[in-house]
Structures are given as structure tokens and as C-alpha cells.
Amino acid sequence: MTKILGIDFAPLNIPLSRRIQTLCALQWVLTFLFGGFGCLFLSIYLLFTRFYWIPVLYIGWYLYDRGSAETGGHYVKRIRNSVVWKKMAEYYPASLYKTAELDPTKSYIFGLHPHGIMQTNGFLSFATDATGFSQKFPGLVSHLVILAGQFQFPFYRDYLLTSGMASVSKKSFHWICNRPGHCACVVVGGAEEALESQPGVFNLVLMKRKGFIKQALIHGASLVPVFGFGENELYDQIHNPEGSFLRKLQLFLMHKIFGFSLPVIKGRGVFNYTFGLMHYRRPLNTVVGKPIEVEKNENPSQEEIDSLHARYTEELKDLFESNKTKYGIEESVHLNFIG
Hints:
Layout: E1 2-4, E2 7-9, H1 16-46, H2 53-65, H3 77-80, H4 83-91, E3 94-98, E4 108-113, H5 120-126, H6 133-136, E5 141-146, H7 156-161, E6 166-167, H8 170-177, E7 182-187, H9 190-194, E8 203-205, H10 211-219, E9 222-229, E10 236-237, H11 245-258, E11 265-266, E12 284-288, H12 302-323, E13 336-338
Parallel strand pairs: 3-12, 4-7, 4-9, 5-6, 5-7, 8-13
Antiparallel strand pairs: 1-2, 9-12, 10-11
Helix pairs in contact: 1-4
């Protein structure tokens, strides 16, 4: 490593295998950050060129296919098994662990925590097979459910759908949870929790997030808490405490304009370790907890929802506490449930 003007540059003799891992991780980061709007602007631009027919034809495809985000996406096994995702997983490296067997004749709702900046754990483990989901949970098909707005971007939506990703909507839960062996994987804390993402901090936006609990009751889907150790370590975030001008601005933009949060982050670069948009190369360990069996109730009361939510929270807390020291978290650190 060479340091010039305070910048730590990567050495030139890094093995090719690590360069490939970095490239694969980079393409996903850039796609996550710029893919949606990039495809939208490109489509608009093409309308005013001799290639106008490409977005015109795509409009027809979109109108025909617009419901796919609520019917489990377009699960393409070959894409989920792509070597690109496996090399990306090697970059951190990322691993998936199970603590209990899951019956493939049942349906499940996985609650993913924490959100982090990009939910990299969730993508690698449940939208690809890079960490071996199909081997660890044979007979199960996972669907990472995300904001419906992500499926409004031309071409980008197809990129998401081929991984079996779906929108986080009632129709989507209904489709997934009524199919044995399918799992709806929801990032419970959402965009607001991304603003809490800091290395060594575990603030989870959970206390008022009960929609997924209600869906589990309505469909009789087992609830499975999942914790992604290392998710909050991938970036540093500019300090934005509750009540600060930056946090107020971020919340305003999220709720009133964009619908998603805008954390101000600092990572590493491709050829340096000091600044950039790349994830830090730090281990990711996704631990899937034991299922909470849920009896089907198509019209659950608020008391029943609250009771199951309390049980889920305790199971999530136990999952974190029983695994934290394995992944470098001190015994004195605990989850903090907010929002």
C-alpha cells in the first residue's frame, strides 16, 4: 500500500482474482446507485434518436408485463447462479448460515435486519444463490421484496425481476405466501433505517413496523428473523443525529420528494482505500433464525398482531445476542429498537 497526499493507494501487484471480485462488487454498487435513473434517462434520450423504436417497443412490453412485480418476478435460475454474484460474494466475503431446518411445504416471511445502506446481505443471500441458499434450504425459493417504485424504471425493472425480486405490496405477499416453499424476504426497517446505519451501531426501526406481521397472520406464513452481521460496517455515514439539520433534510426528501432516503456515505475507491463509493472489504455473515409458526387468521385483531410482533422482536433479539460475539461484536453491545 502506497500513501500519497494522505490517500492510501492499493498496491499494483494485487492478484487478478481480487481485481475481479472488486469489479463484480463495483458493478452492483453502481447499478444500485444509478441503474434506475440511468435507464430512465437513456430511454428518454433514445426517443429522440434513430433508435426511438427501442423504448417504444419496451412500452408495449411493460404494459404486458407490469404485473410481474406482484407475482414473484421472473425467477431465472441461471442468472441467480451467475459467477458475477459468486465473485461479488467473495469480495467481502459473504456467507449464509442457518440455525434451523425450514419445511419446503410451508411458506415463510423472512424479516431482514439491519437495512444498512444497500442491504447487501439480503441481495446476495436472497436475490442470488451466491451464498448457497438453494443448498442450505433445499426446496425453498426466496423473493427479496422491495419498494414498488423500483419496478417503474424501464429495463432496470427487468434486471431486478430476473432475480425473483418482487414489490413489497399486499398482492405480492398474497402471491408468495400462498405458494408452499416460497419466502418473502422483507427489509423491515426500510429507507428510514438506512439513516441509522453506522459501523458498530445497531438501531433498528421496528416498533411500528407491523405490516409484515399482519401478512404472516393473514396467510399463516411462518416468520423467520434474519440478521446480517457486517451490513452496517460497509460504509461510514456522515454524522446525522436525530434532530440535526442533515437528518431533517434527509427525512423531508425521503417523505416528500423521493420516497427513498439519501444517506451521505463514505467508502473506498477501486484503486484507493481512503474515499469512494465502493463498499469496504469487510465480512458479511447472514444468520437465518428459527421459524415462528403462525396460525392462519384472515382477520387478525390488533391485539393478535401486537402479540406476534412482541414475540418476533424477542426472537430477533435472541438471534443477535447468541451470535454477536462470533462476528466481532462486544458483549456489551445490544440492539436498540426505535421507530
